[in-house]
């Protein structure tokens, strides 16, 4: 959800919440002093035009903190592999046990999240020690992201600041305001095309899923073992649809319903974030540090009044930036991703209600990947938009935007208006071509789908839907709060996932953890 011009639906991955609590789990493993190679299965059969890609040999080198890194090459366009190629960045921790199962590829979500950084910086958060023992844990930056061939839109961080934080010059939701947003979105898209080139049209999820199969093969695995969080569930489910016979053990945590439209995603998330906000306010009302008085319903109205006040009269931060309602909303939703981060909301509301904007910007900056010096730590914002604009067909006519805004205000009166009028894909240089439809993955191995009952970013119903759609989908429910559940909820979820990935054990029924 970007300031005034972007609905950042499909959320910002579990690692975004981890950043707030300062997780940086770097674990050391023994790796050989000399670079190692990964051999390709000798029985791998591919089309002749793809043989050069599928038979490449990865050169692994030590890259610090006990990790190994390598770079793979993939076709820019899988339909015309003779065109130019792109690079995919990989990092792995080698299995500690001699009883190694194989590789486990991990995607943190986004889209636009760096799997490389997720594994390097947060290995213990990404996976359990049981998996670290038995698998080579492999993080990768999907096409368009991070250290791989990446989307780029601006050279100057000040331009990104304007895109994310600049306040509108017209009255909210007026025709002029909508036109301003549309023009700004088209300008952003053109900047991305100018800086990225042809790659911008090939960062869609189907292409990334084809990359996954390439990585599986050159890692030396006959079938894919995979753990995907949030958007990573869509990537994993897409892989299972394209390559059902090559699915090994797939775990999809915090699922996205592949049949859900862009607007339905936004509406469901708006309801989810309001539900999580109410859960926070109920918890807050029992503590000493709560900045609100009265019942949770009354506190929610106070939040609504605060947002409306910031819409009309933004607060100036010490660096000169103006805190409007949309940036405040970004600051609110980041701690909502994880219950352990709810105390940050106490500080946020107390400070903003006293007229201080700096802490709100600190949270929003963390969400947006902005460093204290004004630079940006990665390209997650650009990649997020580029991937979604190829994956989600939209209707951004003024009539549709107004009708959708009315519906959002109805289902989520506080947060819905701030998630309305998303036009970030308006004028995008390439059309969205993915059909939003169910994924069945007929012929696949069993697939584990993990859902959290009060997940604000990928609501529980999406996990239920995906598990029902998949011919071999099996649901594991975590009854609790927060975005995604594995390795961050309880032992019941961890046992179900570890037993499935290590032993292939499929729960006989939903354990309702």
Radius of gyration: 22 Å
Average pLDDT figure: 91
Q: Fraction of residues in helices?
A: 40-55%
Regarding quaternary structure, how should these chains be classified? single chain
Strand order of the largest sheet: 1-2-3-4-6-5-7-8-11-12
Number of helices: 17
Task: Note poorly predicted spans.
Answer: 1-35
What does this protein structure show overall?
With 513 residues, this protein is α/β, with parallel strands linked by helices. It is 41% helix and 14% strand. The protein contains 17 helices and twelve strands. α9 packs across α10, α9 packs parallel to α15 and α11 runs antiparallel to α12. The radius of gyration is 22 Å and the shape is globular. The two termini are 31 Å apart.
Key terms:
513 residues, alpha/beta, ten-stranded mixed beta sheet, two-stranded antiparallel sheet, disordered N terminus
Summarize this structure briefly:
The chain is of the alpha/beta class and 513 residues long. The chain has helices spanning 13-20, 51-54, 115-126, 129-134, 157-165, 175-196, 205-218, 231-242, 262-284, 296-312, 325-336, 342-353, 358-368, 380-391, 398-411, 460-469, 491-503; strands at residues 36-38, 58-62, 68-75, 85-93, 102-107, 135-140, 224-229, 247-253, 315-316, 322-323, 447-454, 473-481. 41% of the residues lie in helices and 14% in strands.
């Amino acid at each position: 959800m970007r300031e005034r011009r972007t609905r950042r639906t499909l959320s910002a991955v579990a690692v975004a919440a981890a950043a707030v609590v300062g997780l940086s789990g770097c674990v050391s493993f023994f790796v050989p002093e000399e670079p190692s190679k990964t051999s390709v299965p000798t029985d791998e059969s591919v089309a002749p035009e793809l043989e050069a890609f599928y038979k490449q040999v990865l050169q692994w080198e030590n890259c610090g903190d006990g990790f190994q890194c390598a770079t793979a090459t993939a076709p820019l366009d899988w339909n015309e592999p003779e065109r130019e190629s792109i690079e995919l960045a990989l990092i792995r921790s080698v299995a500690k046990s001699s009883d190694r199962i194989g590789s486990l590829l991990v995607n943190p979500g986004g889209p636009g999240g760096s799997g490389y950084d997720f594994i390097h910086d947060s290995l213990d958060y990404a996976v359990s020690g049981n998996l670290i023992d038995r698998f080579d844990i492999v993080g990768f930056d999907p096409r368009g992201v991070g250290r791989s061939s990446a989307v780029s839109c601006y050279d100057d961080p000040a331009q990104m600041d304007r895109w994310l934080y600049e306040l509108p010059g017209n009255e909210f939701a007026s025709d002029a305001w909508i036109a301003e947003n549309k023009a700004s979105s088209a300008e952003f898209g053109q900047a991305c095309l100018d800086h990225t080139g042809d790659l911008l049209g090939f960062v869609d999820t189907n292409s990334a899923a084809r990359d996954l199969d390439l990585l599986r093969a050159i890692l030396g695995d006959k079938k894919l073992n995979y753990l995907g969080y949030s958007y990573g569930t869509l990537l994993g489910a897409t892989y299972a649809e394209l390559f059902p016979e090559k699915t090994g053990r797939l775990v999809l945590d915090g699922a996205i319903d592949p049949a859900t439209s862009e607007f339905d995603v936004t509406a469901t998330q708006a309801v989810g974030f309001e539900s999580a906000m109410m859960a926070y306010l109920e918890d807050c009302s029992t503590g000493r540090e709560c900045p609100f008085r009265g019942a949770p319903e009354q506190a929610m109205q106070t939040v609504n009044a605060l947002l409306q006040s910031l819409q009309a009269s933004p607060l100036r931060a010490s660096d000169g930036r103006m805190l409007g309602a949309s940036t405040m909303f970004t600051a609110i939703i980041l701690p909502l991703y994880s219950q352990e981060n709810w105390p940050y909301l106490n500080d946020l509301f107390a400070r903003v209600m006293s007229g201080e904007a700096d802490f709100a910007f600190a949270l929003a900056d963390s969400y947006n990947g902005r460093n204290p010096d004004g630079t940006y730590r990665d390209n997650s914002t650009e990649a997020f938009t580029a991937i979604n604009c190829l994956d989600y067909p939209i209707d951004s006519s003024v009539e549709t935007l107004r009708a959708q805004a009315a519906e959002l205000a109805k289902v989520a009166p506080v947060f819905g208006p701030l998630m309305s009028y998303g036009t970030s894909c308006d004028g995008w240089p390439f059309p969205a071509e993915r059909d939003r439809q169910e994924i069945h993955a007929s012929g696949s191995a069993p697939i584990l789908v993990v859902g959290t009952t009060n997940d604000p970013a990928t609501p529980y119903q999406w996990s239920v839907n995906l598990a029902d759609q998949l011919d071999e989908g099996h649901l594991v429910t975590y009854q609790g709060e927060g975005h995604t559940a594995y390795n961050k909820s309880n032992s019941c979820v961890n046992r179900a996932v570890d037993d499935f990935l290590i032993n292939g054990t499929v729960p006989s029924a939903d354990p309702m953890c």
